[in-house]
Amino acid sequence: MTIRPYLGHGAASPILGDPIRRRAYVEDARRLVRDAEGHEVVSETTVYLAPGVEVAPESEVTTPTRTARVITSATLDHPRAPSHVVLALT
Q1: Distance, C-alpha 2 to centroid of its chain
Q2: What CATH number should be reported for the domain holding residue 79?
């Protein structure tokens, strides 16, 4: 999987950083999630990554099946469960 981090917005399109490759578990399943502004939106794909990566909303993610934008990103860290990062994609 490849992540192009969101750096800001240019005159015509988002500005994305250099690609970062990561191993991930990708689940193509439709889910209702809330975006950064609190609106309910449909996520078509959920990605699970090892901890240690920061992925901002609007970053571009390329999975084996498609390219999409990040809606939300969350780090899950618990002493009795495996830590991981979850991305909800458009």
Answers
A1: 10
A2: 2.40.10
